[in-house]
Amino acid sequence: MNALRLTSLNDDRPERTVIKVGNVKVGEDFAVIAGPCSVESEEQTVQTAHKVKAAGANMFRGGAFKPRTSPYDFQGLGLQGLKILEKAKQETGLPIVTEVTDPRDVSWVSEYADVLQIGTRNMQNYSLLKEVGKLGKPVLLKRGMNSTLKEWLNCAEYILAGGNPNVILCERGIRTFETYTRNTLDLSIVPSVKELSHLPIVVDPSHGTGRLSLIEPMSLAAMAAGADGIMVEVHYHPNEAVCDKDQAMPPHMFGDLMKKLQVLGSCMNGMN
Ligand code: PEP
Ligand code: MN
């Protein structure tokens, strides 16, 4: 691994990368990113933003460009969706995390995003990685569903090598033979990333499991494993979610989860 001379590794840089987004220092504090899978309407987005803010989330997520498996599924509202996210930010003050899927869209999408998300399907989209590498904006790089740690760190490296040091890794589950869960959430990657790299890593238990009942235990386990945060899909009316309904968490459950994370966080502080 060292032969790769990756700057995302600890070798030449023992201090951890800390990225300030809004009121949270990712890599130092435990960051909670919450919001719907996709921006569906102004009401759904803004209402959900208020709910997650009230529960204590640090950032608001929502996709305006949705890379869907089928071309006939909802593809996102595009620019209109970004404008809705801007409204949610104005009303709640929460920084926006949103996905960009095309290198040609990076510069204008970044005007609306505080953190640009690169999804699992685009982890190895090298033109996209090079494009976000030209920005100073934080990038949330999701792990490719079929990718090894080494492949993932090399993709982070494209962004760093382009001149943007602000990369947050996000474990979102990988493909295995298991079908009960949507993906297999690889929590052992969290301490593995910490051993090798100075970059922060957050965990997405929503796509990682695809099941509402598993999101809380996996969020707590992510914190216990040393993750720098979580990203959770929350919808104000989960039954109406246009995208990823089965994993959409209602705001009251998200509130309970936030309380448990606080308790666990205090216990963990007591251990250090
Ligand atoms: C998402 O977070 O909106 C998303 C599409 O996730 P993934 O790329 O991990 O499937
Ligand atoms: Mn989703």
* H/I helix tally: 9
Radius of gyration: 17 Å
What is the CA–CA distance across the termini?
30 Å
Tell me, briefly, the overall form. globular
According to CATH, what is the class?
A: Alpha Beta
The percentage of residues in β strands lies in 5-15%
Taken in chain order, the helices and strands follow as EEEHEHEHEHEHEHEHHEH
Which structural class matches the secondary elements? alpha/beta
Characterize the main sheet: 8 strands, parallel
Supply the CATH architecture. Answer: Alpha-Beta Barrel
Would you tell me the overall average pLDDT?
96
Characterization of this structure:
The chain is of the alpha/beta class. The chain has one domain (31-271): TIM Barrel (Alpha-Beta Barrel), CATH 3.20.20.70. Helix content is 37%, strand content 14%. It contains 9 helices and 10 strands. The chain has helices spanning 42-55, 79-92, 106-109, 126-133, 149-161, 189-196, 205-209, 212-224, 251-271; strands spanning 19-21, 24-26, 31-35, 59-61, 96-99, 115-118, 139-142, 167-171, 201-203, 229-233. The strands form 2 sheets. Strands 9-8-7-6-5-4-3-10 form an 8-stranded parallel beta sheet. A two-stranded antiparallel ribbon has the order 1-2. Strand 1 and strand 2 form a beta hairpin. The mean pLDDT is 96. Manganese (II) ion (MN) is lined by residues 37, 207, 233, 243-244.
